[in-house]
Fold:
Amino acid sequence: MNKIFKHKDFNLVVYVEDTDFQGFVYHANYIKYFERARSDFLTSNNISQTELKELDLVFVIKSIEINYLLPAKLGEELTVQTHVTKKTNARMIFDQEIFNTKTSEIICNGVVEVCLVNAVTKKPKPFPNDLLLIFDRG
Structure:
């Protein structure tokens, strides 16, 4: 059975730079919000992407699926919720959801598959032990 780890909520505010000419969040920015929450997950668990890069190890997106449900608007407060499932020692699935913090309306959700690869050989590599231990908690 795959263990699921819930990461703490990641909060943000929609700024002018995030929006299109209509004042709605530009669709690609939701992917950036997902990325920030995933990076926060790593940082909060003492996983340094800089240190991994020095070892020629990088996280790559294998696939992403996103469903846009409602538009977020300029000035709104958003929350990204992230649940992480370890599929293998070199592959994780992030189930992510963005919702309006004040109204609790779901703005969008997505599933992101992430792998760790050697930047030189492009071959999958096992996640660092510190990251794998997260799934052994509890």
